[in-house]
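May I ask for a single protein's sequence together with how it folds?
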Amino acid sequence: MKCPYLATDLIIEYNDGKKEGIVLIERRDPPYGIALPGGMAEYGLTLEENAAKEGLEESGLEFIVENPGNPLCVRSKPDRDPRAHVVSVTYVGQGKGTLKAGDDAKAAGLYSIDEVIGLLDTAQFAFEDHKEIIRTFLKYRGYLK
């Protein structure tokens, strides 16, 4: 029997002193496009630990999970990732430190909530359900109805 892979995705809320919003990355490797920071779960780590590891690797930020044990959402459509069947568990948290792209992130940027809302209709996302995840977050925080 073949099982799906497991990944963590992150909504990193961040304030760099000039701007606040969430961190999005541009992927260096296929599938290309804008994405939430995240990556495949590693053996021996809890999902929250994996989220923190991925946040640091892709954004240079310490990622502090908001509600450990209580992810924002889970996405599991078999075709959500063109590479394989991947189940994604998304966590919300705060980013601390200096934002800088790393690992498989070609670039990492801080986007205001208004900018994020605009990207939902105009940008090419690497994973189509990242738009759904962001909308779920925006509703969770009361930015969308």
Observations:
- The two ends are 41 Å apart (CA to CA).
- The first strand starts at residue 5 and ends at 15.
- The mean pLDDT is 94.
- The chain is about 25% helix and 35% strand.
